[in-house]
Amino acid sequence: MIPFYSLVQTISAGDTKLLLFNGDAAHWNIYDFNGNVVISGSAFASATAENSDEPRWDRFDDAAIWGTRGNSIQKCTITMGTPGSMSCAITHTFSEYSQGVVFPADSDMNANGWVPMAGQNVAGGQVEIFMYQPSTNTKAGVYDPPGCTGAINTNEPGCIHRLIATPDNGMSIEGVGAGDKLWRPPFAGAPVQWNPSADHHSVGYAIDGATLVGAFEDFDNSGSGGPCYWRPVIAGFTTPSNPGSCPLFPNGQTSNPPEFGWHVSYMDHATRPWVVWTMMGNGTGPECFNAESCYKAPVAWNQSGGNWYPYQAEIVMARVDSNMTSVGQATNKVYRLALSHARQHADAGYYWQDVYAPVSWDGKYVVFSSNAAFAQNPSGCPSGGFSGDCADTYLIGPLF
To answer: Are 289 and 377 in contact, with CB atoms under 8 Å apart?
Structure first.
């Protein structure tokens, strides 16, 4: 049972429950902070009869989680216990979308109670995206991405890869044309280009609490490498996007260890200016299971034969205004919270073995997964060899 992704809120509004996913059985589960099962995967599926998308915690009610069923949205109420119980009730049916509505990937509810959604009226036809506020049954920002057709009952409907709510009740869009785009109130014209390449990112506020920024795994990775040259970036939005800052590493042209796969979570931006980062994704050397042929003992990146890099396999928290100019420089804006000890196998199918670390909305907790318990197992994960899902979930906090 693991967090689904760093951009999907795992922790409930009141910091009492964890929404975890079983990658082998493909079902959602709810646990308490002591590791007890509150709602099992089978109980969750039975209560929700949900579409094949992702449920969303309510932003204000710790006992509530939202889901979609057909062309309706439903509010589910959880009663704590070991086990607890769960009951769901439809709150609105979108008659304009006869084929269904979904929460696309990473479309969590923002601090004002707005959540990105997608709907479809004709099977296989146009997929429409919009913002929705369940508490008031208000819909805004309707947009039909050109040529965006296909199945609706999925967390990636049609052309949409992910939709992320912005603090000003708009959304960032990945999957409509090239790059990352912004679609913000008053929703005039069409979405505006933000990043030339489609990079995973989390959206929030700068240190002033008012300026919109994105925390990107990298920026413009199909062109110049962006302001940090294929490194994590904090980039504001102007026209064009501002130069950006480098929160963990200096510009890669200055100091250039290889770029790996980063994941980011800035879901605490409404209360605290701290961004959580994790870095894995190379699937070679010290990150392989010990028994695999690709395994090699770690050697510091700046030594001969170096294969272990700063922050690799760590959970790191950096203040949103951090801007590094040298590797390892002294700073009070970067905290190394944990070393995951996670491992991967030597092919491209390592999604469930990667480390994702969502931060709670109040910034007090960070949750992550790790398969470290099986690092030296001769067959990797016992449930499926080296490709299996066998991670445990760990909770850091309270941080303040």
So the answer is: yes
Alpha carbons within 13 A on the beta-carbon side of 338: 22
Tell me what percent of the chain is helix, strand and coil, each rounded to the nearest 5.
Answer: 5, 35, 60
Q: CA-CA distance, 397 to 338, in Å (whole number)?
A: 11
In tens, the pLDDT along 267-324 reads: 999 999 999 999 876 667 888 888 888 889 999 888 898 888 888 899 999 999 999 9
Phi/psi at 362 (5° precision): -90, 0
Has this prediction a pTM greater than 0.85? Answer: yes
213: closest CA among 253, 260, 180?
Answer: 180
Could you report the per-residue pLDDT of 175-192, keeping only the tens digit for each? 998 899 999 999 999 999
Q: Per DSSP, which regions of 121-207 are E strands?
A: 127-133, 138-143, 162-165, 171-174, 180-183, 192-195, 201-205
The region, left, alpha or beta by phi > 0 then psi within -120 to 50, assigned to residue 50 is: beta
- Alpha helix stretches (DSSP H) within 166-244: none
Nearest residue to 342 (alpha-carbon basis) of 247, 278, 264: 278
The answer to whether 57 and 76 are in contact (CB under 8 A) is: no
Q: Which two tokens stand for residue 386?
A: 């080296």
Q: List Cα–Cα distances, 329 to 57, 249, 250, 285, in angstroms.
A: 38, 9, 10, 26
Q: Are 142 and 197 in contact (CB under 8 A)?
A: no
